[in-house]
Amino acid sequence: MAQAAAVAKPPAPPRRRRASATPRRLPYLLIAPAALLMLGFIAYPVISVFYYSLQEYNPTKPWRNGFTGFDNFVHAFTADPLFRDTLVFSAKWVFVEVGLQLLFGLALALIVNQTFVGRALGRALVFSPWAVSGVLTSAIWVLLYNSQTGITRYLADVGIGAYGTSWLSDTSTVFPAAIVADLWRGVPFFAILILADLQSVSKDLYEAAEVDGAGRIKQFWHITLPHLKDAIVLSTLLRAVWEFNNVDLLYTLTGGGPAGVTTTLPLYIANTSVDAHNFGYASALTTVAFVILLFCSMVYLRLSKFGGEDK
Q: From the record, what ranges are coiled-coil (predicted)?
């Protein structure tokens, strides 16, 4: 018996506790309220727009409200000449604005990237228009284009043009005038993003290029521009979407006129919904605009090989 008691079985090793899944789920639980809130703010409006695009919905004519299927889309593409005109002008507006903003923004970024006296003040002045809101920008340029107190009066004082000329009410000058106003605010956006990317270019590359006999143009073409590719692609895509959706500046400057020549698709949507109270048709136009932007963005990113390595 004593020997049996002496040869006792060793105690069993403690059983491993099963790892709790709570620590792994904790990050998702913490971000869940914010994610649900964002989903509600984004998903609900998008679904509502798709829903009302299939409806005839006008609060001022409730007896006509109801499901219409794809009639709103058919009407837009077959029986609404304003839709086609606004779509063409939107493409023209985006192409001209983004192209000029990129050109001037790149030039400004290259200038303020150099070392010179007062560079900090120069950068602040270059970037300051981007801090001004769109409505305030429009108000500033409305005053500048005023026929009684604006630029045209001072030009008439020196013999250029006639008194009482309004560039915003003339179909031949309203587009360039609106372009200049939006350039003033849009160019700093490109300058900021491109300058930020320029700061990361190694100076050793330029020194090596100088040793090899490369001039400024070759250095820009073979070093600076390839390094700025992703920044240029991203900035042009973002700015193209913003310019396509531009409502505040054109609405304040021209209201879509004169004779509707400066009416973009989003401005037409705003007039259709707010002024005409035709929310069903406006929702259909919004859906079309969403599909156009989504398709163009995907094609642009695909063709530009954004984020990929150049071979």
A: none
C-alpha separations of 11 from 7, 8, 52 in Å: 12, 9, 72
Nearest to 269 by CA among 289, 291, 296: 289
Beta strand 66-67 with 55-56: parallel, antiparallel or unpaired? antiparallel
Which amino acid is present at 245? N
Q: What is the DSSP string of 92-141?
A: HHHHHHHHHHHHHHHHHHHHHTS--TTHHHHHHHHHGGGGS-HHHHHHHH
Convert the pLDDT of each residue in 247-306 to its tens digit: 888 888 888 888 889 999 999 999 998 888 899 999 999 999 999 999 998 888 888 777
101, 281, 261: which is closest to 193 by C-alpha?
Answer: 101
In sequence order, the 6+-apart residues with CB closer than 8 A to the CB of 119 are: 112
Question: What value does the mean pLDDT of the chain take?
Answer: 85
Q: What is the pTM of this model?
A: 0.83
Crossing angle for the helix pair 229-244 and 81-112, to the nearest 10 degrees: 140
Q: What are phi and psi of 184, to 5 degrees?
A: -55, -35
CA 280 to CA 272: how far, in whole Å?
9
Q: Closest Cα to residue 254, out of 179, 188, 184?
A: 179
List the structure tokens of 304.
Answer: 């530009």
**Three-state SS at 271:** helix
Of 76, 64, 44, 69, the closest CA to residue 54 belongs to 69
